[in-house]
Specification:
426 residues; 17 helices; globular; binds zinc ion
Length: 426
């Protein structure tokens, strides 16, 4: 510990620097912590996730809240605009809809990358909150109306009915949505990836530039809040139908693609397929069931947008132009791998929702399909993207994926045909 005293920062504000508490040694850190028994069905037996830095003696995890946004919190504290001791006032923040608990929450190994109790900490950990533990939600749930131009056009053309409940007048889609921060149980994540916990901890420590020393010095801390993007779930229709085997359920698991999802870039099928997934969810909800869209912040197959744009250039400048038969090779040349999304962890959110069967799975990805079915969820029907929704320049991606094993009801092209599928020049 070192007392660095008081200092003046660049904007003239005085920031009182506190003692630095090294978390890599258990002396004070976590001395009054409640142990976490991951996979227990009773939340008070399982124990709370205490990840705030305000009470070092109560902390029982590695890392902290808000994923990558923890760095912005640090900037706010450093700039003197946020007190490091600020305690949130959670009045009226509780969920308008209840999710769970479900049997999957207490089945060891079923959920390893999020805290199933994350939305209900205010209820289930009340005795500990009353004792002053700073326990924060890692999941928040709210209601919303969403308006997307494509959906409004479908309503205008009469292809989606305005029922006044799920789809309100003018194309207002009623949803319940949940935001989820990642909470990793390290032994469970290692198990899911088929590696040792020690190898996982070492790689996480080294590849973050030594950002979290406790990964290697504190094997007693088994839960890690990684500094990565989270998940958003959009639910529509009768929420009780999500877990009702007698009612239909449509699901799309979508990985972020900012270029297409938000800006309408035509090199891939992401936004058209997302919209098609939402339409399937609306139809299923209007048939008495429910629809679920899961949106993961895994930009560019979790390679990040810088890598993605470099790959775009490499694809379009290669000899012979952007071709379906060289689609994955270009990604691998730049990134070293074709994909870093690790779909093995993806089904956790479906198990948090209590899903056991999906009637319509709006995805062609064999990796997503295999991960979901291997986790014990039945998939009845797989729904590919309709041909007319595929932008011309996205043919390269679509045919390459089908040739690599993505599901299609029409089959994949031959190698010779694949070489003929060309995209636009840069
Ligand atoms: Zn895309």
């Amino acid at each position: 510990m070192a007392d660095l005293g008081t200092d003046t920062n660049g904007n003239g504000k005085t920031a009182k620097r506190r003692h630095i508490v090294l978390t890599s040694h258990p002396s004070r850190f976590g001395s009054e912590a409640v142990p976490i028994r991951w996979g227990e069905a009773d939340p008070m037996v399982r124990g709370p996730v205490v990840a705030t830095v305000s009470d070092p003696q109560h902390r029982n995890v590695i890392g902290t809240h808000s994923g990558s946004y923890a760095v912005y919190r640090a900037l706010a504290v450093a700039s003197g605009v946020l007190s490091p001791d600020h305690r949130p006032d959670f009045t009226n923040t509780d969920p308008p809809a209840t999710i769970g608990p479900y049997p999957s929450w207490g089945t060891p190994g079923k959920i390893v990358s999020l805290d199933p109790f994350g939305a209900m900490v205010g209820d289930v950990f009340q005795p500990l909150l009353a004792k002053g533990f700073d326990i924060r939600p890692t999941i928040a749930i709210t209601n919303a109306h969403i308006q997307m131009p494509e959906l409004m056009e479908e309503v205008r053309q009469g292809r989606i009915a305005e029922d006044g409940v799920i789809m309100k007048a003018g194309g207002n889609l009623v949803v319940t949505k949940a935001a989820i921060e990642p909470v990793w149980y390290l032994p469970g994540v290692a198990d899911r990836l088929g590696i040792t916990e020690e190898d996982l901890r070492h790689a996480l420590f080294e590849q973050t530039g030594g950002m979290f020393p406790e990964l290697v010095t504190r094997p007693d801390l088994q839960v890690f809040l990684p500094p990565i993007g989270g998940i958003t779930v959009y639910m529509m229709g009768d929420l009780s139908a999500i877990t009702d085997p007698d009612k239909p359920l449509a699901v799309r698991v979508h990985d972020e693609c900012n270029g297409s999802d938000v800006f309408g870039s035509d090199i891939c099928t992401c936004r058209p397929y997302l919209v098609h997934g939402i339409e399937a969810c609306i139809q299923t909800a209007q048939a008495g069931g429910a629809g679920v869209i899961v949106y993961f912040r895994k930009e560019g197959r979790a390679l990040g947008e810088v890598t993605k744009f470099l790959v775009y250039n490499a694809r379009k400048r290669q000899t012979g132009g952007d071709r379906a038969d060289a689609y994955f090779t270009r990604t691998e040349c730049v990134a070293g791998v074709q994909d870093m999304r690790f779909q093995e962890l993806m089904p956790d959110v479906l198990h948090w929702l209590g899903i056991t069967r999906i009637d319509r799975f709006i995805s062609m990805s064999d990796m997503k399909y295999n991960a979901v079915t291997r986790s014990g969820i039945e998939i009845v029907e797989r729904v590919p993207i309709p041909d007319e929704l595929i932008p011309a320049d996205a043919r390269v991606e679509m045919e390459a994926k089908k040739a690599a094993g993505y599901y299609s009801d029409k089959g994949a092209l031959s190698p010779a045909e694949l070489a003929q599928i060309q995209g636009r020049e840069l």
